[in-house]
Amino acid sequence: MRTQPDRMVFPTDLGWMALVAKGGLVSGLSFGHSTPQAAVVAVADAQSASETEFDFVPEEWASLVERLQRYAAGGFDDFLDVELLSRRQTHFQRRVIERCRRIPFASTVTYGELGEQAGYARAARAVGNCMRTNHVPLIVPCHRVVGAGGSMRGYSAGEGIRMKLRLLEMEAACTALA
């Protein structure tokens, strides 16, 4: 018997977020949206779900929702304890995602450096593709991955590169206060 995923939508200082989880594992997150409907549409797992399926936050996810809201308000969280549902990822993708999750808060690495840290030297373009298809931004902090020389490359969350810069500035401000 297949269970339905838990689907939640909630407001944050970074705009509306939508979260999808199944069996205790997070499988999708979108943020930076001006409406709850836009957040729902942006979550890949939710394409066939109705808006009403996102209204309720199950108790088991309330803590993560609060943590995401606190992070969006400028608080620290590395989300390393959050377990993710692997989406038929290749070994390469799993290694890159795993290493990306360990990029320190308020720090950046280049796509090439991330590839090298994951054991794949000279795979910057493939790392970029992996980050582009990240279904759980913030939990997998792809905003901390930049182009060679620190150049800002694309970002798939709301507002694109502006959101990426906002997240990096927010994290820097948080560590400056600590």
Textual characterization of the structure:
There is one protein chain. With 178 residues, this protein is α+β, with helices and mostly antiparallel strands. It is built from 6 helices and 5 strands. It has helices at residues 36-42, 59-72, 91-100, 111-117, 124-132, 161-177, and strands spanning 6-10, 16-22, 25-33, 109-110, 145-146. The strands form 2 sheets. The protein has a 3-stranded antiparallel sheet, covered by helices on one side. Strand 1 (6-10) and strand 2 (16-22) form a beta hairpin. Helix 4 (111-117) packs across helix 5 (124-132). The longest helix has 17 residues, at 161-177. The protein is globular, with a radius of gyration of 16 Å. The chain starts with 5 loop residues before the first strand and ends with a helix. 35% of the residues are buried. The mean pLDDT is 89.
Task: Summarize, please.
Helices cover 36% and strands 14% of the residues. The chain contains 6 helices and 5 strands.
Keywords:
178 residues, alpha+beta, 3-stranded antiparallel beta sheet, two-stranded parallel sheet
